[in-house]
TrEMBL record:
Species assigned in the record: Sinomicrobium pectinilyticum
UniProt protein name: HD domain-containing protein
Alphabetized CDD domains for the sequence: HDc
Biological-process GO terms, alphabetical: dGTP catabolic process
SMART domains (alphabetical): HDc (SM00471)
SUPFAM superfamilies for the chain: HD-domain/PDEase-like (SSF109604)
Gene Ontology molecular function: any one: dGTPase activity
InterPro entries: dGTPase-like, HD/PDEase_dom, HD_domain
Domain annotation HD/PDEase: ranges: 45-159
Length: 290
């Protein structure tokens, strides 16, 4: 199976990786936008959880991660709900972990498990993804998940180039099975880009505005019985179609924007990075260098 990743290039997938990608539970991620609601007002920000999940797996593979950790990277987002983190805003979940709490249930998908069993793998191996340190490692440190969404989001909004991405990927290394950087330059660059992404994109006016609007609309639709919470287990387009059966979603968005927002604040997860750097055969946090 040939796959072209827009930021990492062309790859061939086979075996268990190819078969997992072809399952319905994974293909569903093509219809879930990485940035949640923002594509409704900024169509160029239209990358998906499908692209991100494969990207995470590719970083893990490049760094020598086991096939189990590559699979964990591939499937870590299979439980994401429609519009990604919108459900967290609707239900006021500060940790933005609604999808994480249903991961175990989605991991039981029969088609996915048939593939794992074919390759003599036990799904329980993937229950605790935090044990895979290349995939998930706590803030403020680096992880394949954190790296991919930063590079992918920043590329999508036009803030970094393919050359920047290639340069940075070459600066990745591992220590004690976690991701570190080869020099201070890589650390400073990534920290600056991550800070920009957090302040100007995640917490930027356009993103905050559409998420507040969609939070208002979704709450109204839930109260009126137009949609149910379980509809979030489908995908962005399913949820939009269900709303559009009763109301014109885009007209609703335009109307709320035109009336002005009463509350322009949105609680989002606080994110700060302090990457680990190799300095004279020592591992130091960027803040500890010099």
């Amino acid at each position: 199976m040939k796959y072209v990743d827009k930021i990492y290039g062309e790859f061939e997938f086979s075996g268990v990786i190819e078969e997992i990608i072809k399952t319905n539970v994974f293909q569903r991620l093509k219809k879930i936008h990485q940035g949640g609601s923002i594509f409704l007002v900024n169509p160029k920000v239209n990358h998906t959880r499908f692209e991100h999940s494969i990207g995470v797996m590719l970083i893990i593979k490049k760094l020598g991660g086991s096939i189990e950790e590559q699979i964990a990277g591939l499937i870590h987002d299979i439980s994401h709900t429609a519009f990604s983190h919108l459900i967290d805003y609707v239900l006021d979940i500060e940790g933005e972990d609604y999808h994480e709490n249903r991961y175990g249930a989605v991991l039981k998908d029969s088609e996915l498990n048939a593939v794992l069993e074919k390759y003599q793998m036990d799904r329980t191996v993937f229950m605790d993804i935090e044990k895979f340190k290349l995939l998930e490692y706590p803030l403020p440190y680096l992880s394949a998940d954190r790296i991919d969404y930063t590079l992918r989001d920043m590329f999508q909004i036009g803030e970094i180039s393919l050359e920047n991405i290639s340069w940075f990927i070459n600066g990745l290394a591992t220590f004690d099975h976690r991701i570190v950087l080869k020099s201070e330059d890589y650390g400073k660059w990534f920290q600056a880009k991550y800070n920009f992404l957090t302040a100007e994109y995640f917490e930027g006016e356009e993103n905050v505005e559409i998420n507040i609007i969609m939070k208002t609309i979704i709450k109204d639709c839930l109260e009126k019985g137009i949609i149910e919470e379980k509809d979030f287990f489908e995908d962005d387009f399913y949820l939009m179609d269900k709303i559009n059966q009763k109301f014109n979603l885009m007209q609703w968005i335009v109307k709320i924007r035109g009336n002005g927002l009463k509350n322009k604040k949105l609680k989002t997860k606080k994110r700060i990075v302090n990457p680990e750097i190799i300095v004279h055969n020592q591992i130091l946090k960027l803040s500890e260098v010099n």
